[in-house]
UniProtKB/TrEMBL annotation:
It is found in: Membrane. This is Glycosyltransferase family 31 protein. Belongs to the glycosyltransferase 31 family. Beta3-Gal-T subfamily. It is a single-pass type II membrane protein. The chain crosses the membrane at residues 12-29. GO terms for cellular component: membrane. Keywords: Membrane, Signal-anchor, Transmembrane, Transmembrane helix. Coiled coil: none annotated.
Length: 442
C-alpha cells in the first residue's frame, strides 16, 4: 500500500478494523473446474436505505474474463453492495461464477457465428473458450495482428477489440431480462457511482422521455457517452434502441466490426433512432477520485468516477458512508469530496517516489532549474500560486491545482499542503444559486 493510501487508511483504521476481513474466493465455471485464489477486502452490507430507488434501475456491469477479480468483488461490496440481484447483470467474455457474481457470456447467441468463426477480433474469445478461462492467456495472445485505428492511435489489444462487441448485446439481453425498469445504467468494474446523487438527479426527469446521459466524446461527427464513467439510458430510449438492434442486427454487427469502440457504436445506434445525448461532463468524471481535477467541478454534484482501484473504492466507500450519515438529505458536491476526502490525504503528503500527481505545466526552461528534484521544488516554492510539482525524465512540472494522482514509474512528486488548503479555502462558498447539475441536451 502506498504512503498516499496508508495515510488515508490510518485515518479510518479504527472503524475499518471492525468490518474488514480476508477470505478466499473459489470459482467454478461450467466449462471446467477452475479455482482462482484471491485475497480481497470484504465489507459487510450497510443499511442500504436507498434500495427502493435501486429497484427502479437496472445496472449493466461490463467486464472481461481477464479482469482482476479483486476489483470485481470489491466493487460488489462497496458501490454496488445495495443493488438487488434482480437489478444487476454482469456482461463478460465467458460464462463464469465469481463467488456470488454470475458473469454472462455476452457473445454466445448474440453475435452472428460467422463473425466468431472468421473475424480475427474473436481469436482471443475462442482461445478462452477452449481453455475455459483467461488463465494461461499470454501477452502475445492479447496482441492483435491488425490493430484498428482508435482515438488514441493504433489499438493492438485484442481484449479491447473484443470488448466493443458487448455494447449492443448488453442492451438487448438486459431488455429481455427487465423491460419495465425506469432507467438502465451501464458501468464498468472500475466505475464508482454515487447512488444517492444519481437518484436525486433522476427524480427530476421522466423516464418516458428519451435520455442518454453522461460525459460525451465525439468521433467522426458522432457524439457518444464515454462508458467508463457510466451512461444512463431512459426506459423510452432503451425500448427504441433495442427494437432497432433486433430489426437491424446484420447491419449493426457490420458497423461494430468496422468501428473501434463499443460506446461509439451505441451512441451511433441511439442517434439513428432519434435519441440525442445529455452532456454532464462535470458530474460523470472520467478520472478517479484521487486523480480528478476538482477545480473544474467544485460546486456541481458528483455522480460517478472512473479508473477507481479496489483499494481506492474501499477508502472512498468509507468516506461516502460517513458523509451521507451526517448529511443524508444533501447532495454531495465535488467540493465536499475535496474537503472531506482529498484534502486530509494531501495534508499527510510531502514527496512520493514513483508517483504522478498530475502536475503538467512544464517549468523545465526556468533559469533556476538544474535537472534535479530539489530545484523543481524551489521553482514551485518561488511561485505563490504553485501547489505541487513533479520531476520526471529530467524535466520539472508544476501546477496551480491540487491533486493526489496515481502510481507512475520514474516520476517523483511533491506537494505543498498548506497551499492546497489555502486553494480550497479561497473558493467562494457554494450557494443555492450555484447549479448542482449542469445537463446540456444535444
Amino acid at each position: 500500500m502506498s504512503r498516499v493510501f496508508t495515510h488515508n487508511f490510518r485515518r479510518i483504521a479504527p472503524l475499518c478494523l471492525t468490518v474488514i476481513s480476508l477470505y478466499y474466493l473459489y470459482v467454478h465455471v461450467p466449462t471446467g473446474e477452475i479455482i482462482h485464489d484471491k485475497t480481497i477486502l470484504y465489507l459487510p452490507t450497510s443499511t442500504c436505505d436507498i434500495t427502493p430507488s435501486l429497484q427502479e434501475v437496472f445496472v449493466m456491469v461490463k467486464t472481461g474474463a481477464c479482469e482482476d477479480y479483486e476489483r470485481l468483488i470489491t466493487q460488489s461490496k462497496t458501490s454496488l453492495q445495495c443493488v438487488p440481484s434482480s437489478s444487476i447483470a454482469y456482461y463478460s467474455d465467458l460464462e463464469e461464477q465469481v463467488g456470488s457474481i454470475h458473469l454472462r457470456d455476452t457473445f454466445n447467441g448474440s453475435v452472428d457465428q460467422w463473425y466468431i468463426d472468421t473475424d480475427d477480433e474473436f481469436i482471443l474469445y475462442k482461445k478462452m473458450l477452449e481453455q475455459g478461462s483467461c488463465k494461461g492467456i499470454t501477452k502475445e495472445d492479447m496482441q492483435a495482428a491488425d490493430p484498428r485505428k482508435g482515438l488514441n492511435g493504433n489499438n493492438d489489444n485484442r481484449g479491447w477489440n473484443l470488448d466493443k462487441w458487448k455494447f449492443l448485446p448488453m442492451a438487448d439481453i438486459t431488455y429481455s431480462l427487465q423491460s419495465n425498469k425506469k432507467w438502465y445504467i451501464e458501468i464498468e468494474v472500475d466505475t464508482y457511482p454515487i447512488w444517492r446523487n444519481v437518484f436525486n438527479f433522476l427524480a427530476n426527469l421522466d423516464h418516458e422521455h428519451d435520455y442518454y446521459i453522461g460525459s460525451p466524446m465525439f468521433v467522426a461527427g458522432v457524439a457518444f457517452i464515454y462508458g467508463g464513467s457510466g451512461a444512463i439510458i431512459s426506459q423510452s430510449a432503451m425500448r427504441k434502441v433495442v427494437d432497432h438492434i433486433r430489426e437491424n442486427t446484420t447491419d449493426l454487427q457490420k458497423f461494430t466490426h468496422d468501428n473501434w469502440a463499443g460506446d461509439h457504436v451505441m451512441g451511433k445506434t441511439l442517434k439513428d433512432v432519434g435519441v440525442g445525448h445529455t452532456t454532464m461532463s462535470r458530474e460523470f468524471v472520467r478520472d478517479s477520485t484521487i486523480g480528478a481535477d476538482y477545480s473544474f467541478h467544485w460546486c456541481t454534484a458528483a455522480l460517478s468516477f472512473h479508473h477507481v482501484t479496489a483499494e481506492e473504492a474501499v477508502a472512498f466507500h468509507e468516506f461516502e458512508t460517513q458523509w451521507f450519515g451526517k448529511f443524508s438529505t444533501q447532495i454531495m458536491r465535488h467540493k465536499d469530496i475535496f474537503h472531506g476526502y482529498i484534502l486530509p490525504q494531501l495534508e499527510g503528503l510531502s514527496t512520493e517516489i514513483d508517483w504522478d500527481n498530475n502536475a503538467r505545466d512544464d517549468a523545465s526552461n526556468h533559469p533556476h532549474f538544474n535537472s534535479t528534484f530539489e530545484s523543481c521544488k524551489e521553482i514551485c516554492l518561488a511561485a505563490s500560486d504553485c501547489v505541487q510539482y513533479r520531476f520526471a525524465y529530467g524535466k520539472c512540472y508544476t501546477t496551480k491545482f491540487p491533486q493526489i494522482g496515481r502510481r507512475e514509474p520514474y516520476s517523483r512528486s511533491g506537494w505543498l499542503p498548506d497551499r492546497a488548503r489555502k486553494w480550497a479555502d479561497d473558493h467562494k462558498p457554494c450557494t443555492r444559486n450555484d447549479e448542482e447539475w449542469s445537463p446540456h441536451n444535444q
